[in-house]
Structures are given as structure tokens and as C-alpha cells.
Amino acid sequence: MSSNLLLAFALMLVFEGLMPFVAPAAWRETFRRLIQFSDGQIRFVGLSSMLVGLLVLMLFS
Length: 61
Fold this sequence. Notes:
Layout lengths: L1 H21 L1 H11 L4 H22 L1
Helix pairs in contact: 1-2
């Protein structure tokens, strides 16, 4: 189990680092726009991301 968790964490780091590596200007602009969102909007984005992640996990597990 811990091996799978470490692999999942490593894959997450690869995906997280992909955008700043490939398109740093777009990544910076995305965060510039993100700080203008209200707390509720940011929470909605986080919730949506978690739900999509859970759905993908359920589909491929």
C-alpha cells in the first residue's frame, strides 16, 4: 500500500511540474487570475478537482 501511495505522490509531482516547465508564462498568468477569485470560488475549484480525481480513481481501480 505505501509503495502505491509513494508512486501516486511521485506521479502527482510530475503532473504538477509539467505546466511550469512547459509554459511558465501561462502558469504565472493562471495564478495571477486565481488570486482574484473569492474564497468560495477557490473552494469550488478544489472540490471539483477532488471529485474528478475520486471519479477517475473509482473508474480505474
